[in-house]
Every structure is written in structure tokens, then in C-alpha cells.
TrEMBL record:
Protein name per Swiss-Prot or TrEMBL: ATP-binding cassette domain-containing protein
Organism name: Actinomarinicola tropica
Gene3D superfamilies, sorted: P-loop containing nucleotide triphosphate hydrolases
SUPFAM superfamilies in UniProt: P-loop containing nucleoside triphosphate hydrolases
The family this protein is said to belong to: Belongs to the ABC transporter superfamily.
GO biological process: response to antibiotic
UniProt cross-references to PROSITE patterns, sorted A to Z: ABC_TRANSPORTER_2
Domain ABC transporter as annotated: residue spans: 38-267
MF (Gene Ontology): ATP binding; ATP hydrolysis activity
């Protein structure tokens, strides 16, 4: 549901949720085609003196889960609001389902399910009435009751539908917002920190549902600060900072770009003896903190390296291949672009020449 928040620009007049008729000449993306569902190119947007977005390129392939990562104020929410047409760009182009949301906002929003970081709900109405109101705006007609029951059951709040939303816990409000976002079976789901305020069980349930919706053919864009949560979910990662995209790509391609070859973690009874590895052939990077982390040019070197250490009498207590995580990637990207105080030291990434994103 469109969720106007204070301070937002609505320069082209209020947006409404009424099902908009698609103009005959409007270009439209078939959700089963391979055309991107969202394409933001060179988008800029300022709020007074603050550049919220600057030359942002953001492309969301159909039937994928794209995760937007970035520090506070990076522009993630602004980008989502741009996609729903709640904000217009100052510069650049925005296309969603092949449509310009500034011109065809009602049609775009009818096909989007949105859960914003602070969902606007009506506290003085019951959960059911909140959903029924949205169902009416979406024009669900006679299907409304069934869809409400189905959506509420999906997010486990069917038992609370007759209670006033003002008495809901934070987690229940999030679940109600999630239920509302899928009422009209949208093609594109935009979730801004959808697990915020949820207990671990409910968070996992939401992540499972996101995967399920993806399997059913939906396209999902999710903003999160929880890197662990994004791990295993993201098919495309876009890291934003100061309103622009720093990198984008699949987690596999991005980690392979930052850590080509193989990464192994080693520990030994006398760990300082591992430092000799730093000069070993094929070692691209070496670092020893709690354990030693070695980046090799190719995984084939691992057996030789271990054989050599054992031959030198080093008693190894741990040998573990390490697959760089999204957390490693995030901090490596941040360190490359804007070193952070308080951030854990990244593994020593040696970037390949592979062009990934910017
Ligand atoms: N309506 C607004 N009025 C004024 N400034 C705004 C508005 N919306 C966003 N901004 C500014 O634009 C920048 C980007 O904000 P945005 O909320 O998009 O970041 P974010 O990545 O979603 O941050 P967070 O992780 O904290 O939610 C920030 O500097 C923010 O203060």
C-alpha cells in the first residue's frame, strides 16, 4: 500500500491506490518475460541540500530477490519510494514494469506490495478492517474476504484480526503489514526491513515466505541491515552508499571478484609459525588475527601448503576452507570506498580485474 510519510515529495499531486487502467500506449513488461522489472538509470534526488540519491543505477531482474544493503542514510528507502512513484526523480529515469511511475503511479502501485520500515496502519481499526480497507482500494470485490483470511493465515495473525491494531505488538503490526502487502497478489514486493521487530521464529518465517513468493514467480526487493538475513536469500546484492550504487551483482560473482582463488583459515599450536605462509608461492594475501586467513590464487595449492606446514613440524589445529560471506563482502566494499571506524577488519581482499558493478 502506498505509505505517505512526512516530508516526502508529492510534486505531482496525491497518489491513490485505485486500480489504474493501463493506458493503451503504455509499455508493459510481461512478468513472465526476462525484461527487468525495475530499471533506475542515473537517478538523482535531493531533499533541500541533502543529496539522497546521486547517479543511482539499479536494475532488478524478473523473478529474483534483490537485497539493498548500505549504512543508515545510504538512500535505500528513497530508492524504494522512487520505485513506487511516491517520489519523483530530479534526474534520470525510473521504469517499473516498463512504466514511468510518475505517469502511471496507480498502475505501478497496484502491482506492487510494499512493507515500509514504519508501516502506516490504522490503530483505531481492527486488523480485519485494516485489511478490508486495503482490499477495497485494490478492488478485490468478492474475493476480499478469502484473500484477507489467506494473507493473515500466511503471516500467523488470523487469531488477532478482530482486535484493534493499537493493541498489537510491534511484531504483530509487521505481520499485518506483510499480510496487507500480499493481499492483491502483486508481481513486485518491496520490503524495507521486513523483519524489524520480529522475534527469531517470525523472522525466519518471513524469510521463508519471501523465498516461497519468489518460487511462485514474484520479484522481491528487500532492504536490510541484517547481513546474516540477506545471506542465502539474496540472488542479487546492491550496496549503496551516499545515494549511489557502489557494487551490484550476484553474491557469488561479487565474492569471487573480491576474493579470487581460495580462502583458507588455519590455526596451529604455535600460530606465529604460520606467518611463514605470507611469502609462500601462490599466496595472494595473508592475515593473522584469532586465526590465520590465507588467500591463495587457486584451491589446488591447499594440499601443498598443508603438506609443507606439516613437513616443517607445524602442528595444525584447524584447517578450514572459508567461503567469504556477505558480511565479508559488505565490509570489504565499505573499506574500499569509505573506511569505517568500529568495523571488523575485512579479510585481506585481493580484487580480481573482473568488472562487477562499479
Ligand atoms: N523526506 C525527506 N526529507 C528530507 N530528507 C530526507 C527525506 N527522506 C530521506 N532523506 C534524506 O535522504 C538520505 C537517504 O535517506 P534514506 O532514508 O533513503 O536512507 P536509508 O538507506 O533508507 O537509511 P536507513 O538505513 O537509516 O533507513 C538521508 O540523508 C535522509 O536524511
Amino acid at each position: 500500500m502506498y505509505d505517505p510519510s512526512p516530508g516526502g515529495s508529492r510534486r505531482r499531486g496525491p497518489r491513490t491506490l485505485q486500480a489504474g487502467a493501463l493506458p493503451a500506449d503504455a509499455q508493459r513488461v510481461d512478468p513472465t518475460s526476462d525484461d527487468p522489472i525495475v530499471a533506475l538509470r542515473g537517478v538523482g534526488r535531493a531533499f533541500g541540500d541533502v543529496d539522497a540519491l546521486t547517479e543511482l543505477d539499479l536494475v532488478v531482474p524478473a523473478r529474483s530477490i534483490t537485497v539493498l544493503l548500505g549504512p543508515n542514510g545510504a538512500g535505500k528507502t528513497t530508492a524504494v519510494r522512487m520505485i513506487t512513484g511516491a517520489l519523483d526523480p530530479d534526474e534520470g529515469t525510473v521504469r517499473v514494469f516498463g512504466l514511468d511511475p510518475a505517469e502511471h503511479g496507480a498502475e505501478v502501485r497496484r502491482r506492487c506490495g510494499v512493507v515500509s520500515a514504519k508501516p502506516a496502519l490504522y490503530d483505531r481499526l481492527t486488523g480485519w478492517d485494516n485489511l478490508a480497507y486495503s482490499a477495497e482500494l485494490y478492488g478485490l470485490g468478492r474475493r476480499a474476504d478469502d484473500r484477507i483470511r489467506e494473507a493473515a493465515a500466511r503471516f500467523g495473525i488470523e487469531h488477532a484480526l478482530d482486535q484493534l491494531v493499537g493493541g498489537y505488538s510491534t511484531g504483530m503490526k509487521t505481520r499485518l503489514a506483510l499480510s496487507r502487502s500480499v493481499l492483491h497478489e502483486p508481481d513486485l514486493l518491496l520490503f524495507d526491513e521486513p523483519t524489524s521487530g520480529l522475534d527469531p521464529e517470525s523472522s525466519y518465517a518471513v524469510l521463508d515466505l519471501i523465498k516461497e513468493m519468489r518460487r511462485d514467480g514474484s520479484t522481491v526487493v528487500m532492504c536490510t541491515h541484517l547481513l546474516l538475513e540477506a545471506e542465502g536469500l539474496a540472488e542479487q546484492v546492491i550496496v549503496l552508499d551516499r545515494g549511489t550504487d557502489l557494487i551490484s551483482g550476484t553474491p557469488e560473482a561479487l565474492t569471487a571478484s573480491y576474493w579470487p582463488g581460495a580462502v583458507v583459515r588455519l590455526d596451529a599450536e604455535e600460530p606465529e609459525r604460520l606467518d611463514a605462509l605470507a611469502d609462500h608461492e601462490g599466496v595472494l594475501a595473508y592475515e593473522r588475527a584469532q586465526v590465520a586467513t590465507v588467500q591463495l590464487d587457486t584451491p589446488e595449492r591447499i594440499p601443498d601448503l598443508i603438506a609443507e606446514l606439516v613437513g616443517r613440524g607445524v602442528r595444525l589445529t584447524r584447517v578450514e576452507p572459508h567461503r567469504p560471506t556477505l558480511e565479508d563482502l559488505y565490509f570489504a566494499v565499505r573499506a574500499e570506498h569509505r573506511p569505517l571506524r568500529g568495523a571488523p577488519p575485512p579479510h585481506p581482499p585481493v580484487r580480481s580485474d573482473a568488472a562487477v558493478g562499479r
